[in-house]
Input
Amino acid sequence: MNKDTLIKQLMIDEGYVESIYNCSANKATFGIGHMVTKADPEYGKPIGTYVSRQRCEDAFEDDLVNVLKDCYALFPEFDSYSDEEQEIIANMAFNLGRNRLGKFKRFIAAVKDRDLREAANQMIDSSWYRQLPNRAGRLVKRMKKQAAAMV
Output
């Protein structure tokens, strides 16, 4: 997977903010979609609190490491997938988190079975798709393109 490409995609999908703000799920967030947790020094600080560029980058790097761990946990054959598939899955994992992505049982099964057309259908058949139609729609389109390339 091209990590730089993934980072660019996540910056587009998540945005970049050097202060604490409430994301669409009403959770304190900063940087490139980093949700504030109790372990963060920003925990409990008010919305609008400045967060340095370095802190935003460090949090993002940690988030990427965790996202890739999640991808390997859910998809043990992750390395065997194309760069495009890895980027799609990692983008979903970044957005949803391991627990929520792990509930996409039919999507996971379709990817593992290498039925990417069905994987795209399962992405569409989700509340995630309805809640984030632009982001999800772009990822579905990419997955469908991968499915067509496999034929």
User: Anything to note?
Assistant: Strands lie at 17-22, 28-31, 34-35.
